[in-house]
Specification:
Blueprint: H1 9-13, H2 16-30, H3 32-46, H4 52-66, H5 82-95, H6 101-115
């Protein structure tokens, strides 16, 4: 959904603080795969080399992830985060060329911190 000024509801919902709050609250429930993708996108967004168009895609996807109202409510057992995963995977498909090895490594380090070593 787009507002009159060209920004989506999701872009307006995204803030760094709300992202970290949601990730920390639901990390175990959402699972490593989803959190890994969200973190890679987040670190790509924070990289000054990431182009504006890619940033817009990332902000939209992360905004959807942190919005309290989803197509499938996050609190539903098993399937609650499936729509979020789909949106994040689609965003990665669009911005994959901008996700650097360092973004993946930072995500991996954060996952290791939260979930422990494998």
């Amino acid at each position: 959904m787009t507002k009159g000024n060209g920004t989506s509801d999701y872009e307006k919902s995204y803030t760094e603080n709300s992202f970290w709050k949601k990730v920390k609250k639901f990390a175990r429930t959402a699972g490593k795969e989803l959190i890994n993708i969200a973190l890679q996108l987040y670190y790509c967004l924070e990289d000054s080399d990431t182009p504006t168009k890619a940033r817009g895609v990332i902000i939209g996807a992360l905004g959807y992830f942190i919005m309290p109202l989803d197509v499938i409510p996050d609190l539903m057992p098993v399937v609650g985060f499936s729509d979020d995963l789909g949106v994040l995977v689609a965003a990665v498909g669009v911005v994959a060329t901008h996700i650097k090895r360092e973004h993946k490594e930072m995500a991996k380090e954060k996952l290791s911190e939260w979930f422990g070593e494998e």
